[in-house]
Amino acid sequence: MKLSTPLCSCILLLGIYAPKALSDMPPLQDVCPMAPQGEMKLFMNGFLCKHPSTIMASDFKTLLLNHAGDMHNILRSSVNMVTATEFPGLNTLGLSMARTDIAPNGAVLPHSHPRASEMMFVHGGSVLAGFFDTKGRLFQKSLGEGEVFIFPRGLVHYIMNHGFSPATTFSVLNSQNPGVFSITHAMFATDSDVVEGLMARMLKFGEMGLGDNSSAGLPWAF
């Protein structure tokens, strides 16, 4: 018995769209064990929405990335992450934003975002940006004003000032709660001497003049 053309079309469409419709929503927190039946209370994977009648244009505007952060610290850098917690208009959109300011000889230490990829735009100055893949290969580029670099989801990455003036970058991440996993915090290494030593090793990347995809001879031993 042959299937009719309309029936074949319906089966094909179900095969294409059903997996997406039945897939789980991505998590917005690190862990979420199921509560026992007697303890279950209302919990959202995100935040509750405003009533449509109370939504205003101001819900979709923010000035939180308008000013440079404080770079008077051991890293000589500042990262201001804005998520749906601080900017209500981002809720349910799967987006967050960040502004990074880096003084000369400053850096953002290696870290990763477990729930998001990051697209970084260089607004001013020049930076050296790179990330490691799961095979240990380094993908690193020197970036100037107006250039864009991508940090894939979950991969360890870093940024360094690569010039003689302050550098500023703006980033968009594809999660309203991307999370931050810091190597130094994971190692329980918050001592200033450890941080300074890590920064010194990072600065060697710029001095070595590495190619686009480098994996050998890296000064990256913990």
SSE diagram, text form:
Elements (H helix, E strand, L loop, with lengths): L4 H18 L54 E6 L13 E7 L4 E6 L5 E7 L2 E6 L5 E6 L4 E4 L5 E5 L5 E7 L7 E2 H4 L5 H17 L4 E2 L8
Antiparallel strand pairs: 1-2, 2-9, 3-8, 3-10, 4-7, 4-9, 5-6, 5-8, 6-11
Describe, in plain words, how this protein is organized in 3D.
By secondary structure, the chain is of the alpha+beta class. It has a domain at 70-212: Jelly Rolls. 18% of the residues lie in helices and 26% in strands. The protein is built from 3 helices and 11 strands, in the order αββββββββββααβ. It has helices at 5-22, 183-186, 192-208; strands at 77-82, 96-102, 107-112, 118-124, 127-132, 138-143, 148-151, 157-161, 167-173, 181-182, 213-214. Strands 10-3-8-5-6-11 form a 6-stranded antiparallel sheet. Strands 1-2-9-4-7 form a 5-stranded antiparallel sheet, with no helix packed on it. A hairpin with a 5-residue loop joins strand 5 and strand 6 (138-143). The termini are far apart.
